[in-house]
């Protein structure tokens, strides 16, 4: 089968140039041409834009962007065992055939692979559904075309999985609401949201905007692809598999109905994915709001509200996106929630474990990666004193690592002597027979704060002072 030539002059081919000749449209289907990218400035006629979406999804440029996104995200393979590094070779050999199957409506997605990850609650897990890498490319291609269309419909108080929006924006909006006098919240918890989404309701909402029945059918196939668990394939008549590129968009599409219902009722709210907080000025108002909105969620959206975790509370007693809130001089301030602190310290314990066999250089690198990510996420919080205490504890753990590595008394003597310590003190320290943790405290005068920094270990406090926004 021959392929059409690219008509865009001067296009710069990317590293995956060989794929460029694979992910193009067959000559016999010239009618499936690209109608232009969907942007906010080109969405006046929704029906015209959404009645031939499949051609936009299977467009060469869109598929190439989807392939590169999946490749950069890496991740594990699905039920077929194919890994991301094998994807390019597969698409070179089967790309045209794959596109034709999708175009003809004959493509059948593979079931997702069930993976369970632990939740914060002890003993509870979150179930993920990992699609195959090929299915991830197609899902990503669908998401890239649908996202700009639905972005125009999403409410401004929705912050999860959206471009140029994030958790920090949601938290700042929470602060604004509290500063305006809304100090009581309905902390809404949807029970196993991704596993309980009503697929019929989702398809109904999608069909209001998407006029291309082939795209609706393809999405429906992904919803009904099934789940492989313990070698057995189970049906998936309910829910959206959490783990694919398409699931965040579909979750926002479902919950956008809730957003606009809250807007219609005049409520202030902030939603990030399935975490939603409704702000009220009094406890009585919040209780009334909760009693009125729960029936809508369960009867209209067919979602289940977790009655045990959904509660009316003061803003200072709630947890949202890992943050806590407190009031200072009448203004809402952010802090790191105690549960997030405990989780952070557990991670640091693993990174400083003396039994993982890491070199000190590698350990310092892994610690720096975690510290940058954690501090950048929590940089809105007032946490200088917390980080100073954590740094002190972390430095002691690092000293304990070095103490154990030195092992013999003669090695300890030689290593301590390098730091200009008086001979009598070197002898006393090297001959110490106390436990590792107690000995680590004794090394304060040798492996000082500055010396640990010189060894390559990052300080949480120092990094926070560079990036904090307070």
Explain the overall architecture:
This protein is α+β, with helices and mostly antiparallel strands and 470 residues long. Helices cover 49% and strands 11% of the residues. The chain is built from 20 helices and ten strands. It has helices at residues 17-20, 46-50, 53-57, 60-73, 87-104, 133-151, 167-179, 193-196, 199-209, 213-223, 247-264, 283-299, 338-351, 360-377, 384-406, 409-417, 423-430, 436-442, 449-454, 460-467; strands at residues 112-118, 125-130, 184-189, 227-229, 232-234, 268-272, 275-280, 311-314, 323-328, 331-336. The strands form three sheets. Strands 2-1-4-5 form a four-stranded mixed β-sheet, with no helix packed on it. A four-stranded antiparallel β-sheet has the order 6-7-3-8, sandwiched between helices. Strands 9-10 form a two-stranded antiparallel ribbon. The longest helix is centred in the C-terminal third of the chain and has 23 residues, at 384-406. The chain is globular and about 85 Å long. The termini are far apart.
Radius of gyration: 27 Å
**Oligomer category:** single chain
- Helicity, in percent? 40-55%
What shape does the CA trace take? globular
The poorly predicted ranges are 1-46
Q: What is the average of the pLDDT values?
A: 87
């Amino acid at each position: 089968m021959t392929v059409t030539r690219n008509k865009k002059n001067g296009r710069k081919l990317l590293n995956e140039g060989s794929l460029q000749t694979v992910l193009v449209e067959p000559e016999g289907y010239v009618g499936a041409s690209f109608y232009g990218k969907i942007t906010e400035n080109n969405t006046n006629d929704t029906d015209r834009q959404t009645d031939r979406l499949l051609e936009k999804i299977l467009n060469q440029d869109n598929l190439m962007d989807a392939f590169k996104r999946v490749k950069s995200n890496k991740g594990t393979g699905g039920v077929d065992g194919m890994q991301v590094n094998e994807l390019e070779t597969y698409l070179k050999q089967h790309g045209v055939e794959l596109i034709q199957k999708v175009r003809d409506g004959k493509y059948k997605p593979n079931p997702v692979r069930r993976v369970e990850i632990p939740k914060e609650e002890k003993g509870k897990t979150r179930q993920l559904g990992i699609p195959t890498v090929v299915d991830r490319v197609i899902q990503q291609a669908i998401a890239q075309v649908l996202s700009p269309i639905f972005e125009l419909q999403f409410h401004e108080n929705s912050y999860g999985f959206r471009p140029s929006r994030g958790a920090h924006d949601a938290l700042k909006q929470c602060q604004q609401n509290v500063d305006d006098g809304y100090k009581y919240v309905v902390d809404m918890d949807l029970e196993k949201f991704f596993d309980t989404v009503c697929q019929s309701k989702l398809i109904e909402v999608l069909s209001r905007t998407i006029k291309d029945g082939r795209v609706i059918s393809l999405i429906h196939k992904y919803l009904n692809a099934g789940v492989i668990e313990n070698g057995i394939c189970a049906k998936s008549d309910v829910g959206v598999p959490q783990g694919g590129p398409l699931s965040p968009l579909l979750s926002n599409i479902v919950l956008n109905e809730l957003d606009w219902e809250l807007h219609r009722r005049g409520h202030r709210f902030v939603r990030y994915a399935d975490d939603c907080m409704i702000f009220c000025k009094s406890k009585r108002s919040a209780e009334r709001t909760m009693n009125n909105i729960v029936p809508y969620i369960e009867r209209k959206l067919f979602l289940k509200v977790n009655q045990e975790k959904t509660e009316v509370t003061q803003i200072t007693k709630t947890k949202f996106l890992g943050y806590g809130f407190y009031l200072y001089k009448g203004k809402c301030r952010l802090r790191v929630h105690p549960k997030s602190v405990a989780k952070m310290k557990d991670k640091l314990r693993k990174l400083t474990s003396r039994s993982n066999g890491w070199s000190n250089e590698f350990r310092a690198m892994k610690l720096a990666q975690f510290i940058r990510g954690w501090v950048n996420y929590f940089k809105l919080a007032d946490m200088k004193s917390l980080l100073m205490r954590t740094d002190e504890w972390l430095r002691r753990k690092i000293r304990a690592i070095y103490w154990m590595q030195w092992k013999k008394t003669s090695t300890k003597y030689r290593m301590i002597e390098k730091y200009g310590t008086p001979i009598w003190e070197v002898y006393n320290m090297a001959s110490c027979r106390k436990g590792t943790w107690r000995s680590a405290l004794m090394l304060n005068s040798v492996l000082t704060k500055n010396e640990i920094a010189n060894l390559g270990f990052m300080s949480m406090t120092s990094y926070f002072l560079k990036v904090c926004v307070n």
